[in-house]
Queue: 3 jobs
Job 1
Amino acid sequence: ETGVTQTPRHLVMGMTNKKSLKCEQHLGHNAMYWYKQSAKKPLELMFVYNFKEQTENNSVPSRFSPECPNSSHLFLHLHTLQPEDSALYLCASSQGLAETFVTDTQYFGPGTRLTVL
Amino acid sequence: DQQVKQNSPSLSVQEGRISILNCDYTNSMFDYFLWYKKYPAEGPTFLISISSIKDKNEDGRFTVFLNKSAKHLSLHIVPSQPGDSAVYFCAASADTDKLIFGTGTRLQVFP
């Protein structure tokens, strides 16, 4: 596997379900990101981790819970979601070494298409 | 309020011609701009960037122009190829703050 991988690629869940999205990067990067892309809306940054520490939580509802056990893996735990949470969830990674790491080139995974019924 | 705007949701260009994708921003503190390209079922891939100290950056067929006074940047693709058909996102950041993305423009290059 190379680059940034995400599983599952598609997920359909009910509002009472609990599920997790997984992201893995094979680039030796130290920063990882979760983005949400809703139809006809800009990519929205949700969370940023740098060296496993969360450095950004962009006012995301608590029904989304990120986890970063190491620099290569990032999870997004989902619980009691709403239909409006249906979107494409993209993971990205970057070098993450300097203070300006958020402007480093980010490498994106293919995304998980989430549908909440 | 969208700080980065791509007002054209789609653009259709003939192969061999120039494609011009536009992006406007409202935050005068933005000092770094990027373009990403996204194919269906794939994540965005970095294309080209420009910092506010420059007004042009070129990489092969791709050139990004920055007009700071107009708060406008554009991506020129010359010559356009069918493989360039994708959604193009511009993104901007201020100092070390997070990237803000536009809504994207779908480019279709036809033979």
Job 2
Amino acid sequence: QSALTQPASVSGSPGQSITISCTGTSSDVGGYNYVSWYQQHPGKAPKLMIHDVTNRPSGISNRFTGSKSGNTASLTISGLQAEDEADYYCSSCTSSSTLVFGGGTKLTVL
Amino acid sequence: EVQLLESGGGLVQPGGSLRLSCAASGFTFINYAMTWVRQAPGKGLEWVSTFSGGGGGTTFYADSVKGRFTISRDNSKNTVFLQMNSLRAEDTAVYYCAKRAEGSANYYAFDYWGQGALVTVSS
């Protein structure tokens, strides 16, 4: 199972919005509404930001929004803040009942 | 408060074995699928294995560990294990255990993670 495709890096200024894409196939992202997004700061465990494509867990800011179109899922962060600087990973279940992650995207807040 | 505490990491020679444990607290353990995810130094996340919840016994493995790793759980002790055999250098990673997310419709969203256990495979 190949990893989902994410841009290696994105950047934005405080207050701006950015979008991170996550491209898979019809056997994973496109076939199920089971995409999740995680934020990981250096040396820390990942933190769930979005599950089931669009759902925010309790306590996650509404500045984080998930969406999907075809085989590509997206995470949009609005009103960028310094603390949003981190690595972001998408994941999706697959037709083989396994899980695949994206390669990760480093977000830099300028 | 949900807590996941991994233990059992360390240095092991290629071809050796190691067993990781993850002690859970703060939730009804038996009801939730539990998963191991690893992260090689400086690399991304890689799913390793999942054990279903609800008292079921279904297990799932990544191709990279199938036949070498075994996931198990002891619901009486609120603990999930990962037995790792025939270890290779490429298994070197921080291993996280993770709990299925509340409110998610599938096994594969994780709302709580442990702090990670470092496994180093080297001679």
Job 3
Amino acid sequence: GAGVSQTPSNKVTEKGKYVELRCDPISGHTALYWYRQSLGQGPEFLIYFQGTGAADDSGLPNDRFFAVRPEGSVSTLKIQRTERGDSAVYLCASSLGSGNLDNEQFFGPGTRLTVL
Amino acid sequence: SQKIEQNSEALNIQEGKTATLTCNYTNYSPAYLQWYRQDPGRGPVFLLLIRENEKEKRKERLKVTFDTTLKQSLFHITASQPADSATYLCAHDSSYKLIFGSGTRLLVRP
């Protein structure tokens, strides 16, 4: 596809359940980022992949959050034992090159996660 | 800790006027600042990047300035149009990630 795609667009789950959020970056983009955005706030960094490896996961809030990118393309963000505070829009972005910050990041439309 | 701040109050202006949005940063000297536009229900869209050694950058009706002494970037939209109504986010680099401000909502009245 032409841009970054994310599925599902909306996810409603119950407290304590496990969820997976998927990101398809732009073909050829080696850098992939996950962010979380709460209402009225800017995106908050979670994790950055360069190829298959997580180069920086310092933004993951706790060990319930985990992300993978096994083949260096599609990435999955996994949240275990969801809590109501996890409710937010989860954004994925990709960029060319080695993650230099002078490369613009292309964002997907996000997955709106609601934990009841 | 690194902080980047934008005016949380919405900016409401008349069509045709120049909109000026402010981004301030503290406790850090970023090499770049980026500006993004975000519409409701969508991801941010990149607009402009300005480097620390550039004082000003332009793209069509957009202009960004970077004042490293004031630790501030200004984002201008000239001849504003209702279609410019959106939230505008600034972000600075920190290692390999972007730190975003909370965004300023711009409303351009016809």
